[in-house]
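## retry 2 of 3
previous attempt timed out at serialization; input unchanged, resubmitting
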Amino acid sequence: MGVITMRKRKKVISKNMIEVLDHHTSRTYRKNGKRVKKKSITPEAMKKQNEKQAEAMLRMLIDNNFNTNDCYLTLTYKEQPATWEDAKKDMQNFIRRLKRRYKKLGKELKYIYIAEGKTRIHFHMIINNAELYSDEIKELWTDGMHKLMLYQGRAEDAIRLASYFVKEKRSACYSEKEDAFKRRWNSSKNLEKPKVKTEILKPSEWRDYIQPPKGYYVETDSIVESVSDEGYPYRFYRLIKIEEVTRGVTRIRHISRSNTRNGNSIAIHN
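## retry succeeded, writing output
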């Protein structure tokens, strides 16, 4: 029978959400009074773990740095570049032009982008809004077409966009791209990283249900209770900041909460 001792809690905090991981390590998990050795991880499991961690970091970066009415761009080519290295140079030139335009407007450019394409190379990019219009983007991206959409700035938008970015990157032909685009995504150096807090949970502090802090609700679909590839139990969940809803006037939000074993199920009514 497993004896649960202390757990570790890691909280990653961005603008609109908090992601919480309660977990064990070889130092904190006991079975029959003895430490449980860490299991070895297969290369495939490690790859999946790395992708999961990359997506988690990306969604928190997006949430922490981009706001409502920032710009989501898709950049395509009229004539495909000969190599991925050529495509990288095209994007670098586009970013330099963007930076010059932002500087004239008294703004500092923030961006994240990925390169994608099994048959046709293109880019997906999010940038902070400096009141650029579509015709200005057209002047700056001279290699083909572009599509501009407004980013909504909610937690679920960051989650969705990060998942899409990682999925697109995964589906692309890595072998041909690794030399030109080594990272899963590329970003400006001025992005504000999410805060990370760690703490030790005593057995008396553990709860079967999840009590969200004031101003947040539990995204029940995010709750995962399982055993890690290393062989240790863990629980993951996401807390979403409750937004004020304004339609002419600010309306009070009424929250009904029902506790379950896996967490709080919260319905929000305006």
